[in-house]
UniProtKB/TrEMBL annotation:
This is Uncharacterized protein. GO terms for biological process: acyl-CoA metabolic process; fatty acid metabolic process. InterPro entries: AB_hydrolase_fold (IPR029058), Acyl-CoA_thioEstase_long-chain (IPR016662), BAAT_C (IPR014940), Thio_Ohase/aa_AcTrfase (IPR006862), Thio_Ohase/BAAT_N (IPR042490). The active site is at S242 (charge relay system), D334 (charge relay system), H369 (charge relay system). Belongs to the C/M/P thioester hydrolase family. Residues 20-148 form the Acyl-CoA thioester hydrolase/bile acid-CoA amino acid N-acetyltransferase domain. Pfam families: BAAT_C (PF08840), Bile_Hydr_Trans (PF04775). SUPFAM superfamilies: alpha/beta-Hydrolases.
Length: 431
């Protein structure tokens, strides 16, 4: 910029917000018709760098507004107000198989928004940075309480919204990757729900032998929520992703204890009902291990492990016995779990049983398995530790733009579904 030209002003509003809130990125005081690159950069907790960038040209007033102006190239094209987040990828030269996930929800996801002169696609280290803004993206809203719990042998984290309560609640079950994943529960608590994120995939020593947990473990978790003084005992949902969704379906049908007000199942299958120990389910799935496929990049495709959909009713959760509303969220390009085929069979089973009025299906074309909260970067494949403790790269599926749009829509409708069935009101009518 010349000495007579004012320095450009880069602003992001808000600079501190929840991860599912949008932001507005604007540049002012540029010469008209001036080419710039907007770039977002994250240094992850795993010590990796993630980036996204868009190419813009200032308008006649010397402004660039990401919410109104088109990106002419970069990691996304067109008018995409949040493209700087959902199009993020590891920087060139990074380790393979990365996935961006927040581990410590007590700290924000720190995003640096940078402005460069010209249209750049590489060499950012040596680029001419004209301005930068630090942005904080939070899963925890102010006042949300995080409580580690080990009652009744449980391993989980309870998140409580601010205020006196009591609150509607969600039992939050993640998938087959295992571990204690907190960020969805933290975000649910930030929207007014007590949420228990439960770890359940790691085997335990039970009666002197190594076993996976059974229904009694999940029943203890549900009862812990039900008995908590800050939880509305009759307003509890169960939410699951992938294998966690299968657990949620099986529990609701087969357990006399787990009686949720509603179910949210993301990338779900009803094949292999949970009636005893998870070990039984893994044993059943392993019978089809010869159905494992690999793509041209040697990434694992596991969706065929549960196909074809069995006719034998003992091999499936009898969803015809469901008595609560069920929201199924399906990615039609799911390469890890037969979510589309399962959703169709679930629909048919519920129609035959006369309870299909309880079913809502959200099915998204070109969307993969890992349907995350809004603006999370799309992960088509990533590293995964199998039950045999073998590290593989799993193909999850999906294409970045439609997958990202699906995440926004699915989360909005998930919150509306929970609002309707746990609070008894629509989002628009909520006070």
């Amino acid at each position: 910029m010349s000495g007579r030209q004012p320095c450009p002003v880069l602003s992001v509003h808000p600079t501190r917000a929840l991860v599912d809130e949008g932001f507005a990125v604007m540049v002012e005081m540029l010469p008209p018709g001036f080419a710039v690159t907007l770039r977002a950069l994250i240094h992850s907790e795993d010590n990796d760098f993630w980036e996204a960038y868009g190419h813009y040209v200032s308008d006649d007033t010397g402004c660039v507004k990401a919410a109104e102006h088109s990106s002419l190239g970069g990691s996304y094209d067109g008018v995409e107000p949040m493209g700087l987040l959902w199009s993020m990828k590891p920087v060139p030269g990074s380790r393979t198989g990365l996935r961006l996930r927040k581990k410590d929800v007590r700290t924000p996801l720190n995003v640096q928004i940078l402005l460069y002169k010209g249209h750049m696609s590489d060499g950012f280290q040596d680029g001419n940075v004209l301005a930068s803004v630090a942005v904080e993206r939070w899963y925890l809203a102010p006042g949300v309480r995080r409580i580690c719990t080990a009652e009744n042998g449980l391993n989980g984290t309870l998140f409580l919204p601010p205020g006196p309560g009591p609150f509607p609640a969600v039992l939050d079950l993640w998938g087959g990757g295992g571990g204690l994943v907190e960020y969805r529960s933290a975000l649910l608590a930030s929207h007014g729900y007590a949420s228990l994120s439960l770890e359940y995939m790691n085997p335990r020593i039970i009666g002197g032998t190594t076993q996976f947990v059974g229904n009694d473990y999940f029943e203890a978790a549900f009862n812990m929520l039900k008995d908590h003084p800050l939880v509305c005992a009759e307003r509890i949902a169960v939410m699951g992703l992938s294998f966690g969704a299968s657990v949620a379906l099986g529990l609701t049908v087969n357990s006399p204890v787990v009686e949720p007000r509603c179910l949210v199942c993301v990338s779900a299958s009803h094949i292999g009902p949970v009636k005893g120990s998870l070990s039984d389910v893994f044993a059943e799935i392993s019978k089809n291990s010869n159905n494992t496929r690999y793509d041209e990049e040697n990434r694992v495709i596991w969706r065929d492990l549960l196909l074809p959909i069995p006719d034998d009713p003992s091999k499936k959760t009898d969803v015809g016995r469901l008595k609560c509303p069920l929201l199924l969220i399906v990615g039609e390009d799911d390469q890890n779990w037969p979510a589309s085929e399962s959703a169709e069979d679930i629909k048919q089973m519920m129609e035959r049983a006369g309870n299909s009025h309880l079913l809502t299906v959200l099915s998204y074309p070109d969307t993969g398995h890992l349907i995350e909260p809004p603006y999370s970067p799309h992960t088509r494949s990533s590293n995964f530790m199998s039950q045999q403790r073998a590290k593989v790269i799993v193909l999850w599926g999906g294409h970045t733009v439609p997958h990202s749009k699906a995440q926004e829509d699915a989360w909005e409708k998930t919150l509306a579904f929970l609002q309707e069935h746990l609070y008894g009101t629509s989002l628009g009518a909520a006070s």
